[in-house]
Amino acid sequence: MTFSRAIVTAGLALGCLATTFPSEASVAQTVARGAVVSSTLVEKLDKGQIAERLKAAGIDAAQVKYGVSAYRVVYRTVDTKGRSTTASQLVALPGNTRRNLRVVSWLHGTTVYRGDVASVNEKSTDRAAALLFAGAGHAVSAPDYLGLGMGPGHHTYGDPRTTVSAPVDALRATRAFTRGHERRLDSRVLVSGFSQGGPATMMVGRFLQQGQDPYFRLGGLAPIAGPFDLSSFEAAAADDKIRMASLYLAYFVISADRYTDVYRTPSEAFRAPYDEQVEKLFDGNHQAAEIAQALPPTSEKLFTAQFLDRVRKPTGKLKELLTALDSTCNWKPDVPVRLHHAKGDTDVAYDNALYCQRQLRSHGATQTLTDAGNVDHNQTVRKALPLVVAGFTGNSA
Questions:
Q1: Distance (Å, rounded) from C-alpha 19 to C-alpha 93?
Q2: What is the C-alpha separation between 97 and 99, in angstroms, rounded?
Q3: What is the C-alpha to C-alpha distance for residues 44 and 237, in angstroms, rounded to an integer?
Q4: How far is CA 131 from the centre of its chain?
Q5: Crossing angle, helix 377-394 and helix 125-135, to 10 degrees?
Q6: Is the peptide bond before 273 cis (omega within 30 degrees of 0)?
């Protein structure tokens, strides 16, 4: 995620994916999905400039071989109801002469402010990640998700359908865009993501493996510090056992209510006076520090006791959603899964990686888990990214 350092800089442990996917046949506007609406060159950097940018971000730049051109691309996709809408992404292309490129789908961590995503914020870790992958020779599709960047409306945080459909449509737009630059994308997609993007990685990967796109197929998986056991995370947030518990839980609950109605009125979930103001804070136009200042520091003071009990022991639509979000690793990928996490991570506990690993093992999947060491959540992605690039580069033959 891209929260400011003073709050929680990289990826609230919430917005995951469910086990079901949007059916192409069920969406009326499939003709326009992935169509490019606009493209804007946002950066053109040589190899040395990329190395400097990565060094400033705390990321090893040893694998950078090329300069990079990066574009903000707005494309057509669908919302939670299957209606036509638009979203934005960063598309990064290496400055080499290779016509055929492997593509990386980079899925970012939780972001509350729409301006903190890779296509807009040049200082974001996600922009740096895209530059690293592209500098190593890959094409990169880094979607902002719905409701962030240049996309209209609210971010559909945790919605099973759009967390898959927006990145897949972003890949389609990237393919169309690169054709206009006389480049061709290989059909095998290398998927990686951080925090929220960890479960998203697994679910986009499953969609691709199932052959639900007519062109793209799964080529590699490398999730980083993902919240794969979301029910346990939310219960811990309800008990104020994690840092910034009230903000974490509020974002998940408010977003989920927008697409699946988990409460009837705000006062059912939130204590006064927050019930009259909290939904407005999560509109995509408020930065994390501003939201944190407006909320009480604990879930106990923000939520009603009855609603916190529902989070600890979910029922109804909330239970259905959390059950689905706990299953993002519960399948057998045809490619090795390279999990990355850090035992020092106190935002998203290392147990989440072990949880995912157990699910993968139960299906006989090939997987590895690399410990980034005694570093925090945000440092985990910086440590893991060069390893992901190395693994993907080995997959690019």
A1: 32
A2: 6
A3: 42
A4: 17
A5: 20
A6: yes
Write out the chain's pLDDT in tens, 397 residues: 444 333 333 334 333 333 344 444 444 444 589 999 999 999 999 999 999 999 999 999 999 999 999 999 999 999 999 999 999 999 999 999 999 999 999 999 989 999 999 999 999 999 999 999 999 999 999 999 999 999 999 999 988 889 999 999 999 999 999 999 999 999 999 999 999 999 999 999 999 999 999 999 999 999 999 999 999 999 999 999 988 899 989 999 999 999 999 999 999 999 999 999 999 999 999 999 999 999 999 999 999 999 999 999 999 999 999 999 999 999 999 999 999 999 999 889 999 999 999 999 999 999 999 999 999 999 999 999 999 999 998 765 4
Instruction: Say how far apart CA 61 and CA 264 lie, in whole Å.
Output: 50
> What tokens does 274 get?
């927050």
How far is residue 38's CA from residue 301's CA, in Å, rounded to a whole number?
45
Residue 29: burial class (beta carbons within 10 Å; 0-12, 13-18, 19+): middle
Give the pair of three-digit tokens for residue 119: 């296509």
CB 45 within 8 A of CB 93: no
Asked whether the beta carbons of 109 and 96 are under 8 A apart, the reply is no
- The structure tokens listed for 161 are 């359908």
Length of the chain equals: 397
Q: Residue 49 and residue 321: Cα distance in Å, rounded?
A: 43
Long-range Cβ pairs for the range 342-345 (8 Å, 24+) = 342/225, 342/371, 342/372, 342/373, 342/374, 342/375, 342/376, 342/377, 342/379, 342/380, 342/383, 343/371, 343/373, 343/374, 344/372, 344/373, 344/374, 344/375, 344/376, 345/225, 345/375, 345/376, 345/377, 345/380
CA atoms within a 13 Å half-sphere pointing along the CA-CB vector of 277: 12
pTM for this model (two decimals): 0.92
